[in-house]
Design goal:
This protein has 156 residues and is mostly helical. The chain contains 6 helices and 2 strands; from the N terminus they run ααααββαα. It has a two-stranded antiparallel ribbon with strand order 1-2.
Length: 156
């Protein structure tokens, strides 16, 4: 009997390819950025927290811990380290002084933007190695990837 959902096997194939290639592409880009970035590279935990705080300025330590699947005390330690580096600031909640909201500093925003620019430049160079057809296919897939990202974020 034919599969009533023939796209299921296509979905499985696409899922398999994405799971395999996205981490590899990310590693390649991270490695290249690390070579070109003129500042010391942050440990992965610090960088992950800093990116989250950039995306969700004002997040609390507890909410950051939940989002990163970490313990609050571990996130608090990362916050202290990033604060000492001048990359993160804590702002006390106006109502509950025990709660701190996390914000990236101007220095953090500048460095994250610089790293993102390096990553985009490296990706652009990689894309130039593809055929026009391959570039068009990836360009067409960008909308779907953005939709997938939005859906995965809302599923949390």
């Amino acid at each position: 009997m034919p599969d009533p959902n023939p796209s299921g096997s296509q979905s499985d194939h696409v899922a398999s390819v994405l799971v395999a290639v996205l981490p590899v592409l990310n590693r390649v880009l991270e490695r290249r950025v690390a070579q070109d970035f003129p500042y010391p590279t942050l440990p992965e935990g610090q960088l992950t927290l800093l990116r989250l705080v950039e995306e969700c300025a004002g997040v609390t330590v507890r909410d950051a811990a939940d989002a990163l699947l970490m313990k609050s005390n571990n996130v608090s330690a990362l916050v202290s380290q990033l604060t000492e580096l001048g990359l993160l600031e804590r702002r006390r909640d106006a109502v509950d002084k025990r709660v701190a909201h996390l914000h990236p500093t101007a220095l953090a925003a500048e460095r994250l933007a610089e790293a993102r620019g390096l990553k985009e430049a490296h990706m652009a160079r990689l894309l130039e190695t593809l055929t026009d057809g391959e570039q068009d296919a990836l360009g067409s897939a960008c909308g779907a990837l953005l939709a997938l990202t939005r859906r995965s974020s809302s599923a949390d």
